[in-house]
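pasting NnrU nitric oxide reduction family protein for the record, 272 residues
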Amino acid sequence: MSFLVSAASRKSPLLRWAVGGWTFFILENTVLSENRTYLIDRLGDDQYHAVYGTCSTLASVSIGYAYWKIRTAKSIPSSLILWNKNARPPLVHLAVAWTCFSLGLVMASQVAPKLQIPVSIASQNGATQFQVRCPFDFSDKHRGNNSSNPFDTTTVRGLERITRHPGLWSFGLIGLGQSLMAWNVPLRIWWMGPAAVAWLGGWHTDSRFRRGMGGTLARSYDAQTSNVPFLAMIRGQQGTGCWDQLFLHEIKPLNAAIGIAASSLWILKKIR
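structre below
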């Protein structure tokens, strides 16, 4: 964002607040998790988690306070204003924001049980009957892979095809969508924070797991997946047919449709 603002505006406390909270959050998580073994040996497991929790809480509070400072600021330097506060964002921004929102909400929706239409049609003895069923399909196992072991981490399926960290990136993509509709630079930078957490946090987690710190990352699984969404699929790391397999067999369609609908309604609200 530095190319958007003048040298004087870069000294604005609003910019420091926008960057500071998220930077603190990323750094404290990185430092404490990277030195986890050493700190537990020195402090003990309970004390380590107490320190970790305290630092994460302070970082989260600073992030929330930064947002409040930016939203309630009485004046913002003109060089930090992208467009009028009450104006509609540019159509290009809205289109990309809708894409980010939709991807983020679709990924988040897959965590819930598979939704289904609560009324089905059955045929018995030549007669058509309507049957009422639960709107949640708790029996859905998403057997999109052909592995006899559904928990085999060397077999990639579902959201794992998109990214190794779907929880982080669903949050990050929603933040990116919101940042594209922000009318000033500090607010835009603040909303980019979740994507920075997903990118850097995901990268650091992968790095630790590759070194056997706090978990493991199987080589075959690592070779077929990526941290950045869709990168492994675009590179062909999952072979041919991975797109069809994901969208036709492994995604919960009604959940995804509700996520896209929610994204569309949010964008339409901004257009009006």
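The radius of gyration is 22 Å.
Residues 45-71 form the longest helix (27 residues).
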